[in-house]
C-alpha cells in the first residue's frame, strides 16, 4: 500500500497527501510524511509550505514540519528561523526546535538564548542539552588551563629510577630479629642464655 503511495507522491504529491491522511494510521505509516516533505522541500520550499495544511495534526504533522524545516535551515537559516517564529502555537515548538538544534553546534550560546525565549518543556531541554554538549569540551579545556595542576600534567620527569625485577630469593620471608631458625621448625622464638 505505502509503496504505491510513495510512487503516487512522485507524480501527484497532493493526491498522495489526501490518501495518506486517510490511511496512515501507524507510526511507521506516518513516517511517510518525513520522506515526502523532505523531497518536496528539496525541490521547492515555497510550493511545499501550503501543502502543510493537508497534513493532519499530531505525529504526521510533526514529521512533515521537521523534514521541511530541516531542509530549509540548511539552505537559508535566517528565513527558516523567521518562518518558524511565525507559525501557530501548535506548530511553532517543533519547527523552532529543529532550527535551534541546527544552530547549537555552531553558536551554542545563541541557541540557548533563543530556546529560553521561545521554547519550553522537552523541546527546550533537547536544545539546551545539544548546546551544552558543544560547550562542555571548551569549558573543560579552559578550566584545565587555569588549574594550578595543569602545569604538572605537562611536566616530564627528569629522572626515572628503574625498579628491579624481584628475584626468587628476595621473595622469601625474612626472619625478624626476635626469631631464630631451627631444624624442626622454620622459625621459633629466640631464647636468650
Question: What's the SSE blueprint?
Answer:
Layout: H1 2-11, H2 13-23, H3 27-30, H4 32-43, H5 45-48, H6 59-75, H7 77-86, H8 92-103, H9 108-118, H10 121-146, H11 150-153, E1 179-180, E2 188-189
Descriptive overview:
The protein has 193 residues and is mostly helical. It has 11 helices and 2 strands, in the order αααααααααααββ. Strands 1-2 form a two-stranded antiparallel ribbon. The model has no long low-confidence stretch (mean pLDDT 80).
Give a brief description.
With about 190 residues, this protein is an all-alpha fold. About 65% of the residues lie in helices and about 0% in strands.
Q: Which blocks of ≥5 consecutive residues have pLDDT under 50?
A: none
Give the helices and strands as they follow along the chain.
HHHHHHHHHHHEE
Average residue pLDDT: 80
What is the global morphology?
elongated
Largest sheet: 2 strands, antiparallel
Structural class: mainly alpha
Highlighted features:
single chain, 193 residues, two-stranded antiparallel ribbon, mainly alpha, elongated, 11 helices
